[in-house]
Amino acid sequence: MKRLSLKWRLVILHTIVMTLVMVFVLTLLFSISSKEISANVKSELQDRVSESFDYISIKNGAVIFDKDFLEIKDGIYLSAYDGDDLDLLYGKIPYGFHYDLGFLKDDIREIKAGDVNYYVLDSDVILSDGQKLTVRGIVSIDAAQREYALTLRIALILLPLLFFLTIVSGYILSKRALDPVEKIIKKTDDIRREKDLSKRINLENTSEEISRLANTFDSLLADVEKGFEREKRFSSDVAHELRTPITVIKMACDDLLKRDDLDQDMKEDLETIKRKNDQMAKMIEKLLLLARAEQGRYKLHKHDFDLSKLAMIIGEEFKVLGKERGIEVVTLITPAVRMYGDEDLLERLLSNVLDNALKYTRSSGKIILKIDRDKDIKIEVVDTGIGMEKSQLEKIFDRFYQVDSSRNDSGSGLGLSFVKWITDVHGGKIDVQSEKNKGTTFTFTFKDQIAEK
Questions:
Q1: Which of 141, 76, 134 is nearest to 105 (CA)?
Q2: DSSP β-bridge partners for residue 109
Q3: Domains plus CATH for the chain?
Q4: pLDDT tens track for 171-220
Q5: What angle do CA 367, 397, 358 make, to 5 degrees?
Q6: Model pTM greater than 0.70?
Q7: Disulfide-capable partner of 298 in 3, 110, 293, 357 (CB 3.0 to 4.6 Å)?
Q8: CA 26, CA 148: separation in Å to the nearest integer?
């Protein structure tokens, strides 16, 4: 199972935490609310009964009740009785409530009448003429509890919405928090893909921690860039300095080989020195070219040319070389495939890849050079050579790397590095498929820029 991204892990963690907090808070609130509702109902009942005393007065020896006494405020019913008797003088009582319920002064009772639960409070009031009345306040507990239950249902209905909003808010927050990290990843990937170490992340207007991370990356890139520049200058300088002694050695070998007083062993030794010197000269030439290319000092000479014709000429040359080693070289070239590029560099590309195939193909083996054009231009070199392990495929374009240096000492390990650079400057792609002891296939794909024009 694919691991969740940090963003979604933060969303899930935020949602779980916020859900637990909401559940805890709602549980606590409803637990407290249940008790508070009961206490509030009792308090309102007491206040309403005390307030009702102001609605009773004496006029000409008769008890007068204000019309507000009949108002059912906050669900509280008021009724007045004559002293300790059960004679109702004025007021209202809930439907179905016991009319003859005995009095219990100044004490709130819970009474069940039918299916309804009530709070009942009886309280005496002494009128101005000394007459005593009893005021009874009645309020339904169930009505308050129904309001509480309604609130609970609304909360339960809203809980999924709150859960959804928690997920959305968590996603937005985590996205905003990780956006700078995504920018760092994108810019770093662009630098890696374009292989341009001069670029920097330059992340501004963000948190201190992310800014420090970006600055650390920029400092690291600057150090790596300096290291690569030193390496390029070193390669260029070393190759340049070696050209003179190599030339001197070649001239000295040529002069000595012209002498007639040398014995056969000395001639063979000089031939060996000259051969190795020539090999070193070619390696230095490639190093200088690569160094100039990496420093941007190599000028491409692109033009429209016949790639098929070029490939046929190179193929014929390698057929002769292959025949000398007992290797069959086959060309399967689509005619008139034209390409816009540097013809000299493409010639080197084909020669280097075919030469590499020739080195690592056994006698009686086979090499196939294919040129074709469909949507893109495709160059394919297939051999039945020694092949490579998968672990070696990642290294073959590194400088001086050789798959099996013990089999051939004529290579420098720079040929495929040169091939990779030529492919890159022409906007092409390389695909290498290989199997140990069965052979290797190099496939080069270039966009048909002529057709695009």
A1: 134
A2: 120
A3: 8-148 (3.30.450.140), 213-294 (1.10.287.130), 302-452 (3.30.565.10)
A4: 788 777 777 777 777 877 877 776 677 777 777 767 667 777 778 877 88
A5: 20
A6: no
A7: 293
A8: 13
